[in-house]
């Protein structure tokens, strides 16, 4: 019946029907891929680089910039020319704001109105409320460029070793990279040379936290000082988890590294290093200290912090702080014998709980498979006692790529061509999110209505 009625439709009606069922999420995925390819082609131009390098390296750098990761197979400061640095700067800003933000802005500037599906996908990235895209953009864009302007001024006053224009561009590049949680730097040692500069350390930490805090959480923070407006459960959880992670990570780092990597530093610089670690290690690949000198316990904690990542609707990656919070709350409620997932006097919908579990499981699977592939391709069948890229380094690299963090133990440039491709895929999956990518190719509500009888199994 359905097939015959569809066959009898005019050609125009079929076209309309096909247009209605098109998946807008797929266009977002294609948009990211398009910017990555365009960025790689621009970086491959003779005007963009000073040293010859492979096209795969250009693909890698472009992917890392658009996916706001910060991993690099080459030194971008010396490899690329000034034009190439501008290309990377543009890609980082695009990646930080997001393809939906850019496309929505262009549509509105052209005098057109985004479609319903477009608006729905756009709002899913920034807010739980049914707001107009123009209202969201009027909040997101001024906030982004305002924070970046402050960062630009501060960095400009501190980067004193270069000429005026080079100082300005270095400050601009570093500001965009830091706020967008990318972690690229034009300096070969990242920002290690400024590790003892409190202004640079605190500014970098605040920029990273602002970029990784999320639009919804930031817009609701002023409600703390208002008796009429309430703070949503989302913002409460996101803020609480962020504070806990930053404080715990800083204290743990100071305790573990006090007599290790920080042994020869004055007490004030040790505190600065702890602050930068707690603020930056989850989401941005900035190096204000030598990560290769850290203890195994600190590296393992860093891997966990990167996996958790930043808040939803932000420039940062990872499974997100609220996802980790929901899973933790779920476990606590189940241990207490409670059927529902409750926190702060509210019950979290089961659909949200299921989504958090899916994100966690898929994240673990992606990291496991990518780590396994790299252990095979980068080390072959060498025993674990042999020299080579160690397991912890590969796990750290993959976790950093998936969380779009960008921290590395120095093996990125040692990866084979296949290893670089694997990391590119992991960065791409981590930036868009596994459920988002699955939604781009799988139609929702695929339940065929078939149910089977229950049969129990032993677990635990």
Explain what the structure shows.
It is a single chain. The protein contains 20 helices and two strands. By secondary structure, it is an all-alpha fold. Strand 1 (342-343) and strand 2 form a beta hairpin. Helix 3 packs across helix 4 (55-66), helix 6 runs parallel beside helix 10 and helix 17 (350-379) runs antiparallel to helix 19 (417-432). It starts with a helix and ends in a 19-residue tail after the last helix.
List the helices and strands and how they pair.
Elements: H1 2-7, H2 11-20, H3 24-44, H4 55-66, H5 76-79, H6 82-97, H7 99-109, H8 116-124, H9 133-158, H10 164-179, H11 198-211, H12 215-220, H13 233-257, H14 267-280, H15 296-308, H16 321-335, E1 342-343, E2 346-347, H17 350-379, H18 391-402, H19 417-432, H20 434-441
Antiparallel strand pairs: 1-2
Helix pairs in contact: 3-4, 3-6, 3-20, 4-6, 4-19, 6-10, 9-10, 9-11, 11-14, 13-14, 13-15, 15-18, 16-17, 17-18, 17-19, 18-19
């Amino acid at each position: 019946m359905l097939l015959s009625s569809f066959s009898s439709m005019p050609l125009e009606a079929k076209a309309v029907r096909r247009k209605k069922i098109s998946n807008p999420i797929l266009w977002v995925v294609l948009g990211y891929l398009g910017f990555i390819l365009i960025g790689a082609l621009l970086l491959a131009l003779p005007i963009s680089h000073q040293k010859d390098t492979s096209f795969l390296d250009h693909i890698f750098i472009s992917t890392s910039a658009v996916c706001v990761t910060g991993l690099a197979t080459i030194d971008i400061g010396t490899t690329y020319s000034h034009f190439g640095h501008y290309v990377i700067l543009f890609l980082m800003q695009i990646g930080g704001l997001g393809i939906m933000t850019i496309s929505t802005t262009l549509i509105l500037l052209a005098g057109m109105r985004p479609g319903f599906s477009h608006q729905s996908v756009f709002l899913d990235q920034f807010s739980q409320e049914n707001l107009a895209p123009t209202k969201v953009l009027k909040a997101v864009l001024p906030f982004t460029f305002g924070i970046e302007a402050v960062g630009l001024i501060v960095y400009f006053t501190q980067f004193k070793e270069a000429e005026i224009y080079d100082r300005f561009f270095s400050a601009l590049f570093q500001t965009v990279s830091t706020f967008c949680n990318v972690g690229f730097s034009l300096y070969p040692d990242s920002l290690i040379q400024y590790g003892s500069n409190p202004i640079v350390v605190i500014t970098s930490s605040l920029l990273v936290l602002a970029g990784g805090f999320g639009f919804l959480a930031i817009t609701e923070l002023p409600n703390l000082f208002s008796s009429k407006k309430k703070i949503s459960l989302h913002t409460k959880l996101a803020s609480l988890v962020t504070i806990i992670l930053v404080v715990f990570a800083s204290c743990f780092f100071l305790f573990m590294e006090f007599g290790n990597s920080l042994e020869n530093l004055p007490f004030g610089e040790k505190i600065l290093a702890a602050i930068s670690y707690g603020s930056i290690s989850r989401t941005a690949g900035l190096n204000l200290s030598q990560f290769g000198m850290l203890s195994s316990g600190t590296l393992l904690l860093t891997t966990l912090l990167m996996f958790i990542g930043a808040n939803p609707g932000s420039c940062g990656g990872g499974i997100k702080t609220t996802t980790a919070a929901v899973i933790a709350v779920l476990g606590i409620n189940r241990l207490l014998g409670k059927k529902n997932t409750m926190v702060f006097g509210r019950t979290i919908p089961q659909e949200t709980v299921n989504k958090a579990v899916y994100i966690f499981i898929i994240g673990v699977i992606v990291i496991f498979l990518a780590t396994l592939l790299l252990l095979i391709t980068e080390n072959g069948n060498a025993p674990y006692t042999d020299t080579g890229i160690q397991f912890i380094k590969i796990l750290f690299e993959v976790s950093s790529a998936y969380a779009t963090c960008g921290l590395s133990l120095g093996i990125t440039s040692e990866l084979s061509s296949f290893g670089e491709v694997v990391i590119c895929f992991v960065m791409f999956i981590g930036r868009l999110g596994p459920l988002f990518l699955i939604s781009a190719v799988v139609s929702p509500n695929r339940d065929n209505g078939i149910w089977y009888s229950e049969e129990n199994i032993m677990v635990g």
